[in-house]
């Protein structure tokens, strides 16, 4: 007679095994989900390849949208990277698994963007002739890492280019000084010694040479100074009230002769590079005086405004103003709206200011109305 009692432990054992299996699968799926990896299981002989839903989600597809077939991934891998993946597989098989199947390849996302994938796998079954019959592996999305690497590379290239440019500008302007000094001193000598022997035209031409070479010398000096900005920078705690006081002392004679009034409001203490910040305000204040209206004396207001992550300082004047179409262009090097016979200058002051604010990771822009005045806005990060 049969013993039905024996059936119960077997069923129980099966049940327990089933539970264990479910538990393992649950752990495996959770690991996959938390690492955001996908996996694949390739039955080589049957030419069937299971791809996990997480594998497909990585490229923007739902599970049912991509058939479980080796051709599927071959269709969405970047064509330039397919040979690399095939070679890695061949090396792995030829070495009987000693060389790992491990490569970084690009795939196309459903939206057309590139997804970088770290793809690793191994053959887990071989036939009696040592041909692979089953291989499994994983896919990890490494796009953010690749993007960060690209940005880092780009930043390095930019830094190098910048250094080269700085060097070039320095050498060019430095070497230009010497022949220029010669032109200036000999034209002075010529005018001192021979002016009586020259006719009217000769004197006039000589004056042109002198003024053009003096102007060129100013431009070259400006370039050299532009280059020097930030070279010996020292981070400091700066009281802007004090900085403006020093600038007022430096500009005392033009402030007095033009009857300029400077009003300070709510100026903060900031972190920055002292020498550069002083130069910044010196340029803005002297411009506010220089570009005044002929009929009224300049009124300049320098005010601090507290932002969430920055201090904004505005420097406002009641001068001639700047037409809207030039309000961005004036920050470029040597860009001027007036020629030298109208108002003197080299056109480098605002380029200095821009470079100084870049150095501080801040911003500088202008808002202005012709005939009413201009407000230069400066933002220092806190
Ligand atoms: P520069 O003062 O030597 O001409 P800047 O680079 O300091 O050179 O200024 C560039 C141009 O921007 C000036 O030539 C002028 O046309 C304009 N500008 C600058 N500041 C003001 C201002 N406060 N009011 C009106 N125009 C200004």
UniProtKB/TrEMBL annotation:
<feature type="domain" description="Histidine kinase">
    <location>
        <begin position="171"/>
        <end position="382"/>
    </location>
</feature>
<dbReference type="InterPro" id="IPR036890">
    <property type="entry name" value="HATPase_C_sf"/>
</dbReference>
<dbReference type="InterPro" id="IPR000014">
    <property type="entry name" value="PAS"/>
</dbReference>
<keyword id="KW-0597">Phosphoprotein</keyword>
<dbReference type="InterPro" id="IPR036097">
    <property type="entry name" value="HisK_dim/P_sf"/>
</dbReference>
<dbReference type="GO" id="GO:0000155">
    <property type="term" value="F:phosphorelay sensor kinase activity"/>
</dbReference>
<dbReference type="InterPro" id="IPR003661">
    <property type="entry name" value="HisK_dim/P_dom"/>
</dbReference>
<feature type="domain" description="PAC">
    <location>
        <begin position="101"/>
        <end position="154"/>
    </location>
</feature>
<dbReference type="InterPro" id="IPR003594">
    <property type="entry name" value="HATPase_dom"/>
</dbReference>
<dbReference type="InterPro" id="IPR004358">
    <property type="entry name" value="Sig_transdc_His_kin-like_C"/>
</dbReference>
<dbReference type="InterPro" id="IPR005467">
    <property type="entry name" value="His_kinase_dom"/>
</dbReference>
<keyword id="KW-0418">Kinase</keyword>
<feature type="domain" description="PAS">
    <location>
        <begin position="24"/>
        <end position="96"/>
    </location>
</feature>
<dbReference type="InterPro" id="IPR052162">
    <property type="entry name" value="Sensor_kinase/Photoreceptor"/>
</dbReference>
<dbReference type="Pfam" id="PF08447">
    <property type="entry name" value="PAS_3"/>
</dbReference>
<dbReference type="InterPro" id="IPR035965">
    <property type="entry name" value="PAS-like_dom_sf"/>
</dbReference>
<keyword id="KW-0808">Transferase</keyword>
<protein>
    <recommendedName>
        <fullName>histidine kinase</fullName>
        <ecNumber>2.7.13.3</ecNumber>
    </recommendedName>
</protein>
<dbReference type="Pfam" id="PF00512">
    <property type="entry name" value="HisKA"/>
</dbReference>
<dbReference type="Pfam" id="PF02518">
    <property type="entry name" value="HATPase_c"/>
</dbReference>
<dbReference type="InterPro" id="IPR013655">
    <property type="entry name" value="PAS_fold_3"/>
</dbReference>
<dbReference type="InterPro" id="IPR000700">
    <property type="entry name" value="PAS-assoc_C"/>
</dbReference>
<dbReference type="InterPro" id="IPR001610">
    <property type="entry name" value="PAC"/>
</dbReference>
